[in-house]
């Protein structure tokens, strides 16, 4: 199909191959772009100013796709870049998504997955949030992730901290603990996440592990504390995932987490459902951007 020029907020973008099917469910590139344009108002605050890693699937989600850290040289002049962790001095220029047009441009490149660091590019040493990544080892699934996250919530509550959950859009669940203070460090966030994970490991030794080795994980929830490292990224809120259907990393309420843990609901949302949720509830993850919290001092 020939390219189509569209104008978004004064930016002109040439879109191509809009009829191309990117998901086995039949979801097309046109539908990907439509979702990314419509979700942009709530997604961009969680992306703006960050050094983003794209995972692109130009031939669809049944292929392996590829990660792209370095922002391509053919980007439009209005797509900003941000310096981030790299393999040489000076770092890598990553793409930034600070406006709807940039989001649509990413969609046109089949950048289905947007992976974001915990820190903003203007202060890479200071994470804005701590993340717990609950990764289920089969036959454990998201219901077991929810059970563990509720236990983590109790631990956080005991030290005066709050967290907000979102689905990974794949198999797991993630909890963000907003920090938003200049004293936060990646090392302290990782150490605290590991300590909390180890508390859960002691409480539920048959259900939880903090050990990364695959052999330790079948039937357990791996509390991945290492996602707090300086160079790591996590799937961004509202990002699509490269699954058979266009599932999305979706913010959820604690009531939904409790219902999922009880087996009453399954926390799995497609792009259409996420747009409906945002229309009804707004951005459930907004507090992660604004709430200020200090991690407890060791000792």
TrEMBL record:
Ranges for domain DNA ligase D polymerase: 28-285
Pfam families of this UniProt entry?
Answer: LigD_Prim-Pol (PF21686)
So which domain of life are we looking at?
A: Bacteria
User: CDD domains of this UniProt entry?
Assistant: LigD_Pol_like
Signal peptide interval:
none
Cited Gene3D superfamilies:
DNA primase, PRIM domain (3.90.920.10)
NCBIfam families of this UniProt entry? Answer: ligD_pol
| UniProt cross-references to PANTHER family, sorted A to Z | BIFUNCTIONAL NON-HOMOLOGOUS END JOINING PROTEIN LIGD (PTHR42705:SF2)
Kindly provide the name given to this protein in its UniProt entry.
Answer: Bifunctional non-homologous end joining protein LigD
